[in-house]
Specification:
Blueprint: E1 3-7, H1 12-24, E2 28-33, E3 52-56, H2 62-70, E4 74-77, H3 84-89, H4 92-112, E5 115-121, H5 147-166, E6 170-175, E7 178-179, H6 188-197, E8 203-205, E9 211-213, E10 215-216, H7 217-230, E11 236-239, E12 244-246, H8 247-257, E13 266-268, H9 283-289, H10 298-311, H11 313-329
Parallel strand pairs: 1-2, 1-4, 2-3, 4-5, 5-6, 6-11, 7-10, 8-13
Antiparallel strand pairs: 9-12
The structure holds nicotinamide-adenine-dinucleotide and 2'deoxy-thymidine-5'-diphospho-alpha-D-glucose.
Length: 332
Amino acid sequence: MRRQLVTGGAGFIGSNYVRHVLAHTDDAVTVLDALTYAGNEASLAGLPPERMRLVRGSITDAALVDSLVADADVVVHFAAESHNDNSLADPSPFVQTNLVGTYTLLEAVRRHGTRYHHISTDEVYGDLDLDDPARFTEATPYNPSSPYSATKAGSDLLVRAWVRSFGVRATISNCSNNYGPYQHVEKFIPRQITNVIDGVRPRLYGAGLNVRDWIHVDDHNAAVLAILERGRIGETYLIGADGEKNNREVIELILTLMGHPADAYDHVTDRPGHDLRYAIDSTKLRTELGWTPRYTSFADGLADTIDWYRGHESWWRPMKAATESKYARTGQ
Ligand code: NAD
Ligand code: DAU
């Protein structure tokens, strides 16, 4: 049995990861999470206390981080400020958590010689043109666009430097857009599902032609576990499931699956600096580690996700009004 320290384990991907680890390994998990507006204790409800404990605190708290890392065999670092729109309104918590927080963790794993896995995003590579046949690979140069993606890119580079300069035993993964249960209603898919449930017309930024490469959160987390178990130290692995769709296609599918006309949505103000297209080539992960996605139909995965939000209103309702009033300020 390993002892995993999972930062950000009360967020969307982190809480799904904790469930995945408890279901697929004998490991015990300590979650370190600041429970910001994006963290939710309810996302960890019902998990066995003898295998999962939640510590409320910040990854920028060096003393707390040191004591938790001292008790762990591996650290899996999900904690972040994760929403592009928020980073445009106020970049400051992004710099603190994504850069200073990652630095704090790296210093602790360096002191204790602890295996570390760093969760990152495909956004560090910037964007691709809509008609470009290329996809991101591990060799694509970094070119982030938003304050969020710039801080994630900076955190990746810190990890690479700590591997090379100090011999830290780390791996990095850069994944594309996740969907699935427990995702905050500020994000595109859950925002629009819950809008439709509330009888509100979905909102599409600009023309809606921007492309995202969707992957189910369980497929992301299975890849993270594979990297933790079999990945080569110092390596980066891109995670993606060949799920490219433009935002219009996604919104039309949500409306159709929920029994509404496919065109019952509105166009709103575009996101400043809005990245056009993300697309992942995950050949390295597939050939080296034998990972393949389990969710091969986006429509089926989306239908499951819609069912989940329909069945878990008590989970998302408390955050809905505050989220929508934030969007109202930018007319989105
Ligand atoms: P999220 O916003 O749902 O969760 C982030 C979690 O981190 C929350 O529980 C929050 O309370 C916690 N947190 C924030 N600041 C903290 C701090 N200072 N100390 C401790 N905990 C803190 O985010 P998510 O969508 O689950 O993303 C998780 C990770 O995956 C992030 O690193 C993100 O960059 C990366 N990622 C996300 C996606 C995606 O599509 N959502 C895709 C690729 C990579
Ligand atoms: O690519 C990985 C990234 O995916 C992660 O690193 C981020 O943490 C995660 O938030 C996500 O970033 P995006 O900016 O792509 O996700 P978001 O859900 O905010 O938006 C997805 C697309 O939908 C994007 O093109 C903007 C658009 N959008 C979003 C919202 C909230 C809309 O058209 N309407 C909306 O209401």
